[in-house]
Amino acid sequence: MDEDRKITHHARTAPHCGIERTAVAFLFIFVNYLMMKTKIAIIGGGFAGLNLVKHLAGKEEFDVTLVDMNNYHLFPPLLYQAATGFLDVSNIAYPFRKFFHDKVNVHFRLGKLQKVMPEGNKVLLSTGELAYDCLVLATGTEPNYFGIENIRRAALPMKTADDAIEIRNYMLQKMEEVTIEVDEMRRKKLFSVVIAGGGPTGVEIAGMLAEMRKRILHRDYPELTGLQPRIHLVDSASALLGAMSVHSQKYTYEVLLKMGVEIHLNTQVKDYINDTVIFSDGKTLETQILLWTAGVTGKIFEGLPHECYGRGNRLLVNEYNKVSGTRDIYAIGDTCLLTSDRNFPQGHPQLAQVALQQGRNLAANLVAVIRNQPLTPFAYNDKGSLAIIGRNKAVADFPKPALHLEGFMAWGIWLFVHLFSLVTYRNRFMTLANWAVAFFTKDQSLRMIIRPRSDQQSSRNE
Prior knowledge:
Layout: H1 2-36, E1 38-43, H2 47-56, E2 62-68, E3 72-74, H3 79-83, E4 93-95, H4 96-99, E5 106-110, E6 113-117, E7 122-125, E8 128-131, E9 134-137, E10 141-143, H5 149-154, E11 156-157, H6 161-180, H7 184-190, E12 192-196, H8 200-215, H9 217-220, E13 230-234, H10 246-258, E14 261-264, E15 269-273, E16 276-279, E17 284-286, E18 289-292, E19 296-298, E20 315-317, E21 329-331, E22 336-338, H11 352-370, E23 385-390, E24 393-398, E25 403-406, H12 408-421, H13 425-441, H14 453-461
Parallel strand pairs: 1-2, 1-9, 2-5, 9-21, 11-18, 12-13, 12-18, 13-14, 20-22
Antiparallel strand pairs: 3-4, 6-7, 7-8, 10-19, 15-16, 16-17, 23-24, 24-25
Keywords: FAD, Flavoprotein, Membrane, NAD, Oxidoreductase, Transit peptide, Transmembrane, Transmembrane helix
Pfam families: NDH2_C, Pyr_redox_2
Catalytic activity: a quinone + NADH + H(+) = a quinol + NAD(+)
């Protein structure tokens, strides 16, 4: 009887033991498989970082972690339209996690890079440490205030979604203040805008504000009939859109003048004191709205030696985007400076198309390393430059063959390229819908002052 019970018990437990042993074996194999994967840490989810992740997604050799201080990807070329109320920020942004929710080898981590620790193959984030086998820095740039503290504190930059919302709120608030202001001198100060920087962003926002002044201002603010806000565009160079052709520069200058924009070339903003912009020639302008698009600089991180940085605080890299003097650390996009390209000995322009191409090329090279294949040096393929000035007004330069377009055709190309460069169909649809409404009604409806609770609390306490 006892023997039968033992046999029966053994018969019942034997299959379970086999299943457990099999499960343990599979778990052991899976853990070893994960440990064999190359851990890629990508800091920054802009054009370069996101494109790198896209090309590594689904590659079983890699375990990819994307780190960004925001939980969404932003499309900066249309940021000025969010700042002026033509688009909602959600039209040009999309959550990172929704990009890769079906990619098992891609993870997202919210955090800000604080320190690089090459000796331990780790980085310190605001949310803790992260280990890596390969580190890719795609952190972009930040506004360059050229050491002028007053401008850093008081000017309005346009680099982030928060910046765009702040500009929109601030400018709308000033418009409301003008409607009730009785002092003529103060009215002029509130009714003037100074834009520092005559690159694409400065030109685009100047043109947008000029069109709003013409089509929307007096319709929405009848109290201001007879008043015209002054729009000043300032640049230290001898021409606007310095990176584009002379043909495009002249066209842009002439169109903006016709739109009523006051252009100051060969002029630097030297300081901003008591609502007064001080220029390099000694002249001054009173304004409470100083928009800063005058330049950018790279970010310096603790842990990387000074020798790693070049002009503009950009990380020096070789033809494979590997950071000089480091091991297993790469940099792509605006944050890197590659001078080995004979066509661009001073480094590539800080453009989206450069960032996208570098992200794709680095992904191919990382795969090549794993598979013992030859690496491909980065070679920039310049597809041309575009800038929009206003409704039916834009410029386009194409290098091969050399072609310069202006007006309606360039405007249509600009719209098409930017619409289809947005990362999702949802973004494209919402943006197209907003553009269509604005085009046919010559109006836009996002002129609402929406402040975070902290700002509301500050206002109550004043």
